């Protein structure tokens, strides 16, 4: 990059709710962006994880939706917007406002979200606007509201470092919120008194820093924390003054907890934990003043998610450990702007600016502020119900923005069927191909990260400015613009006459302060200080934690240490809780419990993260992690393919036998879609059970059965060009540097012929010279295609995935970096073995610096390294995001074992 | 001490190889006399093709010139007149056409083979020749100077070498073959196609599955055209019959030595007459006859072992490999390259690089190989075949040759076993 054309822009990461700051060096002419952590951003202080570091690799326009489409026909904005508005108008006129819906996303910026919510609730007149945040943190919203009277995150990230005990529950923070995790790791290294407890059915990478790991039975969290509350009561660890002055319902909560979890032995039985571990945890919690409980989807994605949240909050309220430095509960959100969505009221069950349908005067207040033409007066349908209503024909038009519900919602095959028969589906997205876009009648190209510009809020209530780095791809527009244009066309010209997103932000800020006082209606969310922000101030916006108003012009780190809550009497509510079993329990037919979650290097449905080749190396395929006992019981072999079946659907995944999984539980990652895996959508399997209060689905607990997929053959293709669907059972696509990798498996033996391969690949490569190896009896087939001396693809198929029959991919992959192959390389290619001189670095461990396992092992061996820090010094692995440190440690441990004494 | 008399009939590669072996094993034992029908020392018949191509001279293909015979105290009778016409087993002597006689204590018959001549109408015309010896090569070279159209009958090794040589010498050459695949005794159809394409690219024409009816003469009794069953004709100034050879055992047979399709020998290369041995293309061993150099040399070694009195070696017929002597074409074939329904066939194709490899396995052992374009590992496959080694462990890389198999055994197999454990 030449210096002259470079400019440096501060922005925020596109991925998780940690909300890290980024300093981007942008070369507009080359459309290149170099990503560095922003040293001054309080979320990350310069660090970035593997995903964030790779954002520069995701901005290529080749996968983007570049122009509006009506059906398969590209069109201009005017035509598309007219079509959206006129069809919505017509359906609303015929069937009423509740016959239409918007399904949004925590990927939307605050301004986008605000306008969508305003259009739906204030002008169309229905609250049928929900979002994928429903799947992610609505149980935290409901839990907060029940306890605090409002949806407030009481603490902040600094508390993770100030605590002497960090309880990480229902979170693989090491992978899902890596930078927060790294902060804890660093703090623990400095503070010898600091302890970490990880509560998770799985032994995840997060356990690497755990002093205690509690592999509780899925869904038993309420029992665990009710037991803790009992322990706190019995051992007189309570903060009685705080309880007396600032809370209500304590006696009922304690009574319920005693009823539910009074007997330690029973708690042990129900949580599947040992009494010793329970007592250790309870004592640590009781005796440590500075406790932070950080919780995430393992708590929230549950049919008792809200209760789980409140069971945690109960314990913090009972000890007065809330909103204090180093003490309090901290909900870790999944998405970059899930919090912003909560602030604008982007959920069907809330209004705007933390106002509520069920609080007198709020609806009227919002309506007056908006000068609303048709104010919705009751909550709309939350996500799962919303798609059920589409399936039932009650909702006839839906507009989906920046999300992929065909993949991410539970019972996803039903969601797909619902959209297939929905009369009108509009999808706004930045990419051209998603499983959901395939079902759209109208596709609208939205700006993606690096182009769009607006405010986001992270998990600690910190507003940051996500800035545009590059001009938009093609005809892509900001979501707020698209929504406003439709709003205007629906006849609401004045209400949606925005020229710049700052105008929306001002309005949002003004609404947050509108009649917000103890005399009128006191709300926690108040950023009225920005109601008159100038455009320049907006451009220069520095990260700040809300509230930002007259009282707190520089923001506020923590809430509730003063005991002032947002219930009518300003007291917090204890909630009386009884542990409930998950909605569906395993039985003889479906004996295993399926847990789902994120991976270290992928994001959601992979539309962006999978564009960065190095992020696809860590876990390239959908897999199912099973305990060795279960593997033996169900005849599963490591590296082979398994078929997972629930009452709702099925999927295929590669088996990963691992002690980190408790027997009886299996885990699959949430990310794969039909764009990347022919039959790897976990959403199809997940049960559509939701929490009765929050409506959040129970994505962590679905009874399933598992069986080996009796593949007749396994294999892979490495190809420079994308390949069409081969119509086989298992076809997984992995974007790599300069080529794509397809993992294949099939049942049909006829696929083992060169003719079949030619028929399939000739569609993409009509004129290549072919090279092939055929051992029909053994079922071994290897084919390569060349243009001149350039390798265009190589395919390897065998009847077993054993590396003796199916070569390792690494060496063959390396050949795509060469524009030409020498004749000897070409002749030896299908052996899958390097010609003399080529070095094989092994499977990738460190995604940040692309360091392979063999390189690390070599460094350890040759230099006698004994710690991951030394490994880092030696070959850089693990020195950036640190996510691979557990793996480096595993490698170190394995080498110690095998070294002679 | 008086030396025993050894007479060798045939100054070709097999006979002289036996003599060489004998000289090194027991230089003093025999007084050796050699009769040869060609007027040269001992030359490498395999190299006649390069001579025809102009890549080698006759001097360069000489194995042993006349000086060598003198140096080793061997009497050489060479030339058409010195062709042996009679073996007198009772008197233990041989008699040549010009009456030269030689007595023997041991006789080694190495009369080789003679070209097979199809008795087509016109096969005796001028300009119809075989491709067997230096005389034939010289004939072809002289035709190439003055004539234009050559037709080679036979798409076997010899025919293709002749065609290539004649093309190199500037003639327009058509190969006429009665079968659909070239080298059908050495190659499968895939390899044969590659080979044909390669020859066509060099400008050589082919008429496959051709039914050759007769040769038509010009006014002077010289061949002028070839006529086929479908009535078509091909202009022809030189007609080379290269349709195979047959063991030359007429002499032995007339001497009452037991012959079938060749001179029948036992595992020591001894004929039915204990004082007479035979080696080379003239023999029949355990029902087989021979046309390749490797088994012939092996026979010579075993025979010399017995003639020298050591008497321990036994000849075993081993699969023999074929290599085509055409510059720029690498071709290797060994064993049973077709296989049957019990066999596994492994193939590698790279048409653009003109590489094709085919291995035939039975019960995890290599029993045949065809290599085209990349013959580097031919001898390794042959070794695997002869040693009957179980190749199942390295089967996935077998086609890439020994270097890759070694690498596989060193790196991949231990890793795979570790993975399983």
From TrEMBL, chain A:
SMART domains: Molybdop_Fe4S4. PANTHER family: NADPH-FE(3+) OXIDOREDUCTASE SUBUNIT ALPHA, RESPIRATORY NITRATE REDUCTASE. GO terms for biological process: cellular respiration; nitrate assimilation. Pfam families: Fer2_BFD, Molybdop_Fe4S4, Molybdopterin, Molydop_binding. This is Molybdopterin-dependent oxidoreductase. Keywords: 4Fe-4S, Iron, Iron-sulfur, Metal-binding, Molybdenum, Nitrate assimilation, Oxidoreductase. InterPro entries: Asp_de-COase-like_dom_sf (IPR009010), BFD-like_2Fe2S-bd_dom (IPR007419), BFD-like_2Fe2S-bd_dom_sf (IPR041854), CT_Nitrate-R-NapA-like (IPR041957), MoPterin_dinucl-bd_dom (IPR006657), Mopterin_OxRdtase (IPR006656), Mopterin_OxRdtase_4Fe-4S_dom (IPR006963), MopterinOxRdtase_cofactor_BS (IPR027467). Belongs to the prokaryotic molybdopterin-containing oxidoreductase family. NasA/NapA/NarB subfamily.
UniProtKB/TrEMBL annotation, chain B:
Keywords: FAD, Flavoprotein. GO terms for molecular function: oxidoreductase activity. Its cofactor is FAD. SUPFAM superfamilies: FAD/NAD(P)-binding domain (SSF51905). Residues 5-288 form the FAD/NAD(P)-binding domain. It comes from the Bacteria. It holds the Pfam family Pyr_redox_2. Residues 321-388 form the NADH-rubredoxin oxidoreductase C-terminal domain. Belongs to the FAD-dependent oxidoreductase family. This is NAD(P)/FAD-dependent oxidoreductase. It comes from Neiella litorisoli.
